[in-house]
Design goal:
By secondary structure, this protein is of the alpha/beta class. Helices cover 32% and strands 24% of the residues. It contains 14 helices and 17 strands. Strands 1, 2, 3, 4, 5, 14, 15, 16 and 17 form a 9-stranded mixed β-sheet that branches. Strands 6-7-8-9-10-11-12-13 form an 8-stranded parallel β-sheet. α3 crosses α4 and α7 packs parallel to α8. It is globular, with a radius of gyration of 21 Å.
Length: 455
């Protein structure tokens, strides 16, 4: 007898949909097929009328021990994940200390224990102040199971100094030598600084000044430079939180010539625009910023032509007090928004609107991330042997995003007031129900560290 049977649901994969049952035992999927072929189970979940998808793998999340950096503890961050159907969060390294060595990784793994409702992996880092030790630290971190290494081509925080071009090329070469993966924030530091000075000199404190500061030109140049470096070092690269069609096209060009340069896009650049920035200012301030409605439509076209490889949230929660500082002067609020819980509902609403398919959603949130971040054959597919990470979705449910439903510690959403159709109603992590009907029912000691399996 097995532990659990999920029956009568419509299973959605990266290339098909079909009515099926999923048998689960000891946290793993043991069979997918007709009900007549399924073994007896101690518990049965009837998913009739629901879609059963692989749990989301979010490759870009920020939880912190040091809440002066970002105001999202592991406990509430993983509650937001569970509520949004995210079963694996891959955590960015910005904390105190930053995750630049195996010793810090060991500390971070121990710190996370007992604080997470969903599974988690870690992303290491290389910064200007640790670049001299990169030849030692990066292979050690990779061997210890991190899913990627993160770095920046620009920074506005002296605690996390960005690499210069020589250091960036060195890091790419080191990681290429171990088949590693570098995730890069790509903007041109010189252009940004020039824009900032000009806008401040002109007395610009309005909300749209932020988008002009972090211009498309700045991002496009940096993405082009990074892609060229990757092509000439044979390194694997994720270009983080892309916001321009030009940048996505440049990464796609690299892939079409045999290079592994991946394009990550976040919900903010598909569901928010400068229209929202004009109205809501600091509440939707991010870096790179939200772009024009025309650029948003161009990114949707890149979903259809295969230019975008995966979705992530870049969940980065600042306090209400921090955001409110920017209401009268956009420069005073920090950039970053909480959106881990909202990603899947936004995508499901887009499915209902005909903007993408369920297959697209699975491919971009689970199937592709599991390959890019080396989590197969454990995460990302509904297949025998894989972890039983599932999200059950009601495509007909309509609800409005309101502060009362937000699980993130900061208690607000950049999508406040959005009415969406299509919501996750149950999330399972390794066969355990952690969210049901919007409520967290799992324990914070259920989540476990997931090391990279392949690559």
């Amino acid at each position: 007898m097995i532990d659990l049977l999920v029956k009568n649901g419509t299973v959605a994969t990266a290339d098909s949909q079909y009515r099926s049952c999923i048998a689960i035992d000891d946290g793993r999927i043991v069979a997918v097929g007709d009900s007549a072929a399924m073994p007896q189970a101690r518990r049965v979940i009837d998913a009739d009328g629901l879609v059963v998808m692989p749990g989301l793998i979010d490759g870009h999340t920020h939880f912190c021990e040091d809440l002066s950096i970002l105001a999202e503890p592991y406990e509430t961050g993983t509650q937001a994940a569970a509520a949004g159907g995210v079963t694996t969060t891959l955590l960015m390294p910005w904390d105190t200390p930053s995750l630049g060595s195996k010793e810090v990784l060991d500390y971070r793994k121990e710190y996370a224990r007992g604080r997470t409702h969903v599974d988690y992996g870690f992303i290491g880092t290389v910064l200007a102040n640790t670049a001299a030790d990169a030849a030692k630290n990066l292979p050690e971190l990779w061997d210890a199971g991190v899913v990627a290494i993160k770095t920046l081509m620009v920074t506005d925080d002296p605690a996390f100094p960005s690499l210069d071009d020589g250091q960036l090329v060195d890091a790419l070469r080191i990681l290429a030598g171990v088949n590693g993966l570098l995730t890069v924030h790509a903007e041109n530091a010189g252009i940004l600084e020039h824009n900032r000075r000009a806008l401040i000199a002109a007395g610009r404190i309005d909300y749209l000044a932020h988008e002009e500061f972090r211009s498309e030109l700045s991002e496009n140049e940096a993405v082009s430079r990074l892609a060229y470096f990757a092509e000439n070092t044979d390194a694997r690269v994720v270009v983080a939180h892309m916001s321009t069609a030009f940048g996505v096209d440049r990464t796609r060009k690299a892939r079409l010539t045999g290079h592994k340069v991946y394009s990550e896009v976040c919900g903010r650049n598909l569901f928010l625009s400068t229209d929202d920035l004009r109205e809501r200012g600091p509440w939707v301030k991010t870096g790179p910023p939200v772009r024009s409605p025309e650029q948003v439509e161009a990114l949707w076209e890149r979903i259809r032509n295969g230019g975008i490889t995966h979705f992530s949230s870049d969940h980065a929660a600042w306090t209400r007090e921090n955001k409110e500082k920017g209401l009268s002067n956009i420069w005073l609020a920090d950039g970053g928004i909480p959106q881990l819980q909202e990603t899947l509902p936004l995508l499901l609403n887009a499915v209902n609107e005909g903007r993408l398919t369920l297959e697209d959603t699975v491919r971009l949130t689970s199937y592709n991330p599991s390959e890019i971040y080396g989590l197969r054959p454990r995460k990302g597919l509904l297949a025998p042997g894989y972890d039983a990470d599932l999200v059950l979705v009601d495509l007909n449910r309509t609800a409005r995003i309101e502060p009362s439903m937000v699980k993130a510690h900061v208690g607000y959403s950049a999508y406040d007031g959005f009415e969406l159709t299509g919501w996750p109603v149950m999330t399972l992590v390794r066969g355990e129900v952690v969210m049901e009907n919007g409520e967290i029912v799992g324990s914070p000691d259920h989540g476990t560290f997931i090391r990279r399996v392949s690559h």
